[in-house]
Design a protein that fits this description.
Layout lengths: L1 H30 L11 H14 L4 H23 L3 H26 L2 H12 L9 H16 L1 H8 L2 H6 L4 H23 L7
């Protein structure tokens, strides 16, 4: 019974933690800021809004996860188009603003939700691995992402040294910035959909 119930959740926790850790490292290289975290792009806020709306509508667990994916993708799209052409600082500020706006919307949804659903919504927002009978989604995604990050380690090191250094060695700055942006957003979205908006500390 222990291996059937507990072990999958432990493996899922390792997978989610690995996804968030890798996304944090990539964002710190992108923004050159040790305080950058995976939720700075507003991905978690968008996913939370989608999931909470599905819960208010009484949707099943799978539908809640699908709604969270849609919300996360919507948040990423908004941040990308609002910050397009403004460089890394504008990208960071846009993500922070959107995350704050999503936090306000989440508070409104919790206040308006039926009292019988609020408990489940709060548990999802706090992070919940109860679903994790099959942890392979987060675990395999984390493994593939780590291998890919190791393969592109040199450009990441150059990018972390600053935009001036990156341009001086001929690095396609905009292309790498967009690649890292969407990669971090995808890693964070997988983690959030898998375990809710679990807390993350750099």
């Amino acid at each position: 019974m222990l291996t059937i119930v507990r072990l999958p959740r432990v493996l899922a926790a390792f997978g989610v933690g690995s996804l968030l850790a890798l996304a944090g490292v990539l964002l710190q290289a992108l923004f050159r800021n040790p305080l950058a975290d995976p939720y700075v792009l507003g991905v978690s806020g968008g996913a939370a809004i989608g999931a909470l709306l599905a819960m208010i509508a009484g949707a099943a667990a799978f539908s809640v996860q699908c709604a969270a994916v849609v919300g996360a993708l919507g948040a990423v799209t908004i941040v990308y188009f609002l910050a397009r052409g403004g460089g890394t600082p504008r990208l960071l500020l846009t993500g922070v603003v959107l995350a704050s706006a999503c936090g306000a919307v989440i508070s409104v949804l919790l206040a308006l939700a039926d009292s019988t659903r609020v408990r489940g919504m709060v548990f999802w927002l706090a992070g919940d691995l109860e679903w994790a009978f099959s942890p392979w989604t987060s675990a395999l995604a984390a493994l593939a992402a780590i291998v890919l990050a190791l393969a592109i380690g040199r450009p990441l090191n150059v990018l972390a040294a600053g935009e001036l250094r990156a341009r001086s060695v001929g690095l396609e700055l905009e292309a790498w910035r967009s690649l890292l942006f969407f990669a971090c957003a995808a890693l964070t979205a997988i983690a959030v959909v898998s375990a809710g908006t679990v807390g993350f500390v750099d």
